[in-house]
Structure formats: structure tokens, C-alpha cells
Design brief:
Length: 442
């Protein structure tokens, strides 16, 4: 291709932190490869960052630098705004202003899309610009493109994934080293896997943002983050990870969304997964997503879910898509939520009481006759059948022992009622530990 034939896409980056710096590096290092693939030269012409000295160290002053993000958004020379500052207040204002200025937008901001995606997509459609957000979910794993395009022939039945590297690192350390949560979280912070305030990660909020986006695309419905069920890992005990291992399971924090006849399940919580499943063997800070389509069956997407260059890989891929499609009509572009805008359906989110799952139960019981019979009767009376049971021997000089029960699939409201009745038994001490279980194989 002659140099004179090459179009130029001018980019403005908001935020030159970890991902912004990685994006700038990848764009420059792979510039010729990107142009060979797209026929377009993608050039960063301006960048905004609060710390100009840091921005200079990233760009070498090869782009105009400013500490005013709105200067980038309002710059008529910028074709695409790459939003990498995070949050969902200022970033929303900046993105909507960019769209109003007829600029395309690329973002890695999962919270922004999960909370305000419906409004942002409507604005983009009205202004005939593209909003691309591959990097918002699972870092460098191209799961958004897979859901929107690669699996477009399928009716998606469910999506389940390890979509937060911090929690997966913590759970891996708890299993491998036999440590408790409090012992591991400090190490995760020291190594940079967990923030000083890890709440968004360990309470499942970050995973719920990402799951909300995948669910909307998989089923063609609006973003419904506020209805997602979220349960984190802070209350998990090492003994349950150990018992799960003895029974052939691994404990993972999963985001799960399923299409049912009653509505869509949208839930994040610790989950027992059979150790034979590939996703059960995803360790450390890695991510993995399993998607079940009616034609293709279960498919697995694995890779780095965070980090400078893995996330930058997705940001730059989005820029390449913009370069290819910026002159196309809206009808020629893949819809944001995979379905045509007038075909997006406001599907109901199933309350957790109505979700069906299998369960791991651990109860502390007096070591005397009749206790197991009472427990199994309570379960049976509520239509809950037992798949497996493990009774541990009491420690020396103790009169109580752990009983672990794995159940078949049942409705959560029945399990809640059964747990309440079991905890009321005189022979049961304390609370029943309950962890949901998923087969993820069909």
C-alpha cells in the first residue's frame, strides 16, 4: 500500500496510567503491523493525565500533553477518544461530551458501561459514532467479540467465568498453601494483585460489572447491574476449600448468567466447580470465561484479565475496529449488544430465591445417633436430594464433628428454608455454611 493511500486515525487518550501507558506502547511498537492489518495509521495526537511529568515519560513528548481531559474531548483534531481514567462520574461526562462532539469512543471502563451503558449507547446511535469496550471485560481476552460476533449463530444459554484476577489469586493461594483469607489478602496487596482497599474485588462488585456487560450482550437486554446478586469471598473459610478438594471440587468466585424460561440469572458468588473442568484449573490472577451456545456447546476463553499490555491489546483491537468501520453506516456495524436496537428485550432478572443450583453444606453437629436422620428428613421434606455426604471424625476430647453434604439441584428458597430448620436443631452448633455448586459441563 502506498504511503499516500494510508488514512490516518487521530487518537486522544484520557489517562496514561497502567493501561494508558500500555496502549501507547503497543500502538507505537506495533504501528506497522496495525497499519498492514487496517490500512490506517493510528496516531496518538494528544493525551491527558493529571501528572504531566509521568505523561512525558510515557510519550517522550511525541503527543500534545495536557492535564485537562476536556481539552482532548473538545479537540477538533481528535477522531477517537480513548477513556482510561476509570470511575463513572467524570468519565461519563467526558464520554458523553466526546459523543456529542461526533467522536468515536474506546473505553476499558467496566463500571461506566455496566452502570451507564444504556444511555451511552443511545447517545452514540443518535450521533452515528462507535463506542467500543472490549477491554472492559477480562482484559486481553476477546470475550466481547466472541459473544457479539464469533458465536452470533448461537442462542447463548449461559455464561460463567472467573473474571476477577485478584480473587482468583487469593483463592488459589488459600488452596495451595492452606492459608486463611486474612493471611492471603496482605500478600495479594504486597504483590500488587489487590488494591489498598480491595472491596470492589473481594466483594464481587468488579466481577458483577463485567458479568452485567456479558449478560446484556449474550441475551440482548439492557444493562441491569443494580439487579445483580453479589456475594464475595471474605467469609470463605480455608476448611471449606479443603473439604471441597477432598470431594473433587475447587472453589472459584464465578460470575454466572443463565437464560431460563422465568428470566435471566445474574449472580456473582463463590462456587464449587468439579476439578475435571478446565475452568476449575485456572489459577493465580488469570481469567477464564465459559460460554454455552446451543450449536457450539461449551467454549472456553482463557488469558490475562488485567495488566498493562494484555488490556492494551484489547484497547488497540477496538481502535483497529474503529479504523475499519468509521466510514461505515450504522447498519453495517455490529450492534453494541449484538442484537439490533429495536430487538433488545427488557428481560426480567430472576430473584435469587428462584435460582436453581446444587449446594455444598457444612454443619457442625453433635456426635450422637439420630442427627443425620433429622438433617436428611429436613432436606427430604423440602424436595432436596443428597448427592454425597462426608462425616469427619471429631477431634480428640471433642463431642462435635463436621458433616459435609452435597445436594442435587434445587430451588434456592427451598434450600434457605432447609438451612433455617437445620440451624434450629438442638444438635447443630452455629450457622450452616452454604456454597453453591455448578457443573458447567452442559
Amino acid at each position: 500500500m502506498k504511503q499516500s493511500e494510508i488514512k490516518v486515525l487521530s487518537v486522544g487518550i484520557l489517562g496514561l496510567g497502567t493501561v494508558g501507558g500500555g496502549t501507547y506502547t503497543v500502538l507505537n511498537r506495533n504501528a506497522s503491523e496495525i497499519t498492514r492489518r487496517t490500512g490506517v495509521a493510528i496516531n496518538v495526537v494528544q493525551a491527558a493525565d493529571r501528572h504531566l511529568s509521568h505523561a512525558e515519560s510515557v510519550t517522550g513528548n511525541a503527543a500534545i500533553l495536557t492535564d485537562d481531559a476536556f481539552a482532548v474531548v473538545n479537540n477538533p483534531a481528535v477522531d477517537v477518544v480513548v477513556e482510561l481514567i476509570g470511575g463513572y462520574t467524570l468519565s461519563k461526562e467526558l464520554v458523553l461530551k466526546a459523543i456529542e462532539n461526533k467522536k468515536h469512543v474506546v473505553t476499558a471502563n467496566k463500571a461506566l458501561i455496566a452502570l451507564h451503558g444504556n444511555e451511552i449507547f443511545a447517545a452514540a446511535k443518535a450521533n452515528n459514532v462507535i463506542v467500543a469496550f472490549e477491554a472492559a471485560v477480562a482484559g486481553g481476552i476477546p470475550i466481547i467479540k466472541a459473544l457479539r460476533e464469533g458465536l452470533g449463530a448461537n442462542r447463548i444459554e449461559w455464561v460463567a467465568g472467573i473474571i476477577n484476577g485478584t480473587t482468583n489469586f487469593i483463592l488459589t493461594e488459600m488452596r495451595d498453601k492452606g492459608l486463611g483469607y486474612q493471611d492471603v489478602i496482605g500478600e495479594a496487596q504486597r504483590l500488587g494483585y489487590a488494591e489498598a482497599d480491595p472491596t470492589f474485588d473481594v466483594e464481587g462488585i468488579d466481577a458483577a460489572h463485567k458479568l452485567t456487560i456479558m449478560s446484556a450482550i449474550a441475551f440482548g437486554m439492557p444493562m441491569k447491574f443494580e439487579q445483580a446478586y453479589t456475594e464475595g469471598i471474605t467469609k470463605l473459610q480455608q476448611i471449606d476449600i479443603q473439604y471441597a478438594e477432598e470431594l473433587g471440587y475447587r472453589v472459584k468466585l464465578l460470575g454466572i448468567t443463565k437464560r431460563t424460561t422465568q428470566g435471566v440469572e445474574l449472580r456473582v458468588h463463590p462456587t464449587l466447580v468439579p476439578e475435571k473442568r478446565l475452568v476449575a484449573n485456572v489459577n493465580g490472577a488469570m481469567n477464564a470465561v465459559v460460554v454455552k451456545g446451543d450449536a457450539v456447546g461449551p467454549t472456553l476463553y482463557y488469558g490475562a484479565g488485567a495488566g498493562a499490555e494484555p488490556t492494551a491489546s484489547a484497547v488497540v483491537a477496538d481502535l483497529m475496529d474503529v479504523a475499519r468501520l468509521m466510514d461505515a453506516s450504522s447498519a453495517q456495524r455490529v450492534p453494541y449488544l449484538a442484537f439490533q436496537p429495536d430487538q433488545v428485550q427488557d428481560l426480567p432478572i430472576l430473584p435469587m430465591d428462584e435460582v436453581q443450583s446444587a449446594y455444598y453444606l457444612r454443619l457442625r453437629a453433635s456426635d450422637k445417633p439420630g442427627v443425620l436422620a433429622d438433617v436428611t428428613k429436613i432436606l427430604g421434606d423440602r424436595g432436596i436430594s443428597i448427592d454425597a455426604m462426608m462425616q469427619k471424625e471429631p477431634d480428640e476430647n471433642e463431642t462435635q464433628a463436621d458433616i459435609v453434604i452435597l445436594t442435587h439441584v434445587t430451588v434456592e428458597r427451598n434450600m434457605n428454608a432447609a438451612i433455617t430448620a437445620i440451624e434450629a436443631l438442638e444438635a447443630i452448633s452455629g450457622k450452616v455454611v452454604r456454597i453453591r455448586m455448578e457443573e458447567l459441563g452442559r
